[in-house]
Amino acid sequence: MAATKAQAPQARPIMASTNLVYGSGLTRPAREDDPTAADSPYPASKILAETDLKASSLNWSILRFGFVYGDKDGHLESAPALMANWKWHPAQNLDLVHHRDIAAAVELALTGALDGHTVNVVDESPTSIYEIALIVGAPYEPSAEPLDDPWKGRADGALLRTLGFTATVPTVYHAQRDGRL
Question: Mean pLDDT of all residues in the chain?
Fold first, then answer.
């Protein structure tokens, strides 16, 4: 940040963050002004970087991505095993975001429309872990047990949409239909 201030003070830094920065126990999908809390090193590093960037005098944007997938990157295919390791309930819904929509959000940020904003970048409809497993052809044990934390993994994307964003891949089912997994 010091180098940017010294060499390119008019630069527009865009930070890629994660919706894993939100703590558990929310009563709705996480919003950008909700408190952050880290339960592992990855979101902890994002929280520290966000804090430093916001404290700078730079013209920043912070994009908090949902679970990223698309274009044969293998990330969606890894989700069932990852979530099973974390012992997440099969009915737990996740907000996803396709690579194309990450690119669209970055392009919007480059126009200045997101200057000084932290935004959640997620698709238009959450998908359960069980559904993700079905889509990628992976096993995931069903359960009739209730969800302990139904809003875990969820982030509200309304702010970004009010700032001009429109998803190009609205849901994982659209990606599947269009051969964009």
Answer: 95
